[in-house]
Amino acid sequence: MQIQQALQELITKMADDELVIGHRNSEWTGLGPVMEEDIAFSSMAQDKIGHALAFYRLLQEHFGGTDPDQFAFLRNAADFKCCHFVEMPIGSYEFSLMRHFLFDHAETVRYQALALSKFAPFQHLAGKAKGELKYHTLHADAWIIQLCTAGKDSRERMQSALDNSFQLAGGIFEPGPAEELLIAEEIYPGEAALYKQWLSHISPVIEKAGLVLPEMTAPVYGGRTGKHTPYLQQLLNEMGEVFRLDPEATW
Amino acid sequence: MQTITTLQAVYHSLEQVMDPEIPVLNVLELGMITDVKVDIEGVHIKMIPTFAACPAIGLIKENIKNAVEKDLQMPAFVSVDKEVNWNSNRLTAEAKEKLRDFGIAPPVRHEGDVNLDMLVKVNCPHCGSENTYLRSPFGSTLCRALHFCKQCGMMFEQFKPLS
Questions:
Q1: Are A54 and A125 in contact (CB under 8 A)?
Q2: CB spacing of B119 vs A47 below 8 angstroms
Q3: What is the CA radius of gyration of chain A?
Q4: pLDDT value at position A10?
Q5: Pairing of strands B155-159, B104-105
Q6: Where are the domains of chain B?
Q7: pLDDT per residue over A88-101, tens digit each?
Q8: Which architecture, in CATH terms, is B7-80?
Q9: Which domains does chain A have, with CATH numbers?
Q10: What is the mean pLDDT of residues A73-83?
């Protein structure tokens, strides 16, 4: 595999993660347990989808990719490179909150690395996104700590959300094809390095919250090679429903 | 028949283009304009969004184009500058004063990095009290956070500091 192709794979998986988690976040609009959470998940959805768009534009401008809207809305599940974690339905609030915490810290370490990338367009994009992401992790950390210290029932539910999420979160760091080429060119540090940094980011919050970090025994891989849960196609059907009525329409 | 124009005329025109979500601030005060050039083709303006996913960016671009074309009677080309990222230090001192008068707490100046204190320690724009707390880092738009003042009992918004 050529470096150009490896780079496209990397951008596609990051963009697809952002788009799909963004859509999942948006499903809390109108359903949040308190109004502030409704607004928070809706705002984060907007940021995530904005970041996905920026990545899809990179594909279009630097790699001869198609129009971002068409790329986002007309592909089938097998052409998506997102991890299973972001595909999972919103479930209970504690699951969505735990996913938000684990995913957004993973995103933070990724953007911190991309801000130093030798691929210049990453520096600009990541430089912008990592400032915005501070508000996401601030939000996640505050709620994790608050709910984990709010009583026995609350803490147990958060621990079980962590136990149910952790192997899925491992799937964020599924190694990509030919990523050693990208590491050699200092385009990004590779998934194993990001995984280590992620652990060091989440551990202080986990500890402060009094949660027990599970062992990463069986990270859920497959998403990066186009193997997905049935939830993804259902999400794509719904997300692209209006777009597919008339793909040529201008809005 | 080329209209004789100056950069000042363009800037004067830009002063009339307000942010659709904060109607007391124009695009210059917000620090959204990064470059203005005038040549034989017309006026070339580069601008940047405050937050990457700002949904108002298309509308603001269009408003800039319309205002400049109307005032200067020549074509205007507005594009997003990909070399510069917005950060909250780009807000002018006048802009911060206007924000406060509008009921939104302005962001404090940062030294390249935003820390927790800058988000949490915010004076109430209504009564000036320091006795406030951060209720949610997400408000009615991407660029605002929600705070509550214990002194005067009012909810208020803060324009978020951004590095």
A1: yes
A2: no
A3: 18
A4: 97
A5: parallel
A6: 7-80, 88-159
A7: 999 999 999 999 99
A8: 2-Layer Sandwich (3.30)
A9: 3-212+221-245 (1.20.1260.10)
A10: 97
